[in-house]
Amino acid sequence: MFPNISLVDLLTLTILAVLLFGPDKLPEIVQSVVGFLRKVREFSESAKQEVRDELGPEFKDFEFEHLHPRTLIRKHVLDGDDLGVDEIRRALDPRAELSEVTDAVRGAANDSRDTPPTESRTPSPEKTAAAPGTHTTFDPDAT
Where, if anywhere, are coiled coils annotated (predicted)? Predict the structure, then answer.
């Protein structure tokens, strides 16, 4: 009935109840609360049964839990005909495209490893001196 109550919460409520009502009146109060909860449950079940009776025999297996939005969608939309949900998921899934890009990058990296480098990383002194009017990509003063 109360799934989110932990043991510490229950212990705190018990201590609070003992302090508020006292140990001699607490059993009477617990019995009256339990009786009230039983009456509410009986009233709820009788109301559900009346609704089932009014709906007729074709709704004999009707459960009110089926009216919960999640249950309703799961039962009527996702089961059986999925209305193309799998196709939409596949279309929006980026994994296939990412694997293609990854394979292309790995292939390009493997190709660059297979070809020998055309120039060494450190330029020779004769390559650093550029002819007047030409632009070089290597700046000896910057290093």
Answer: none
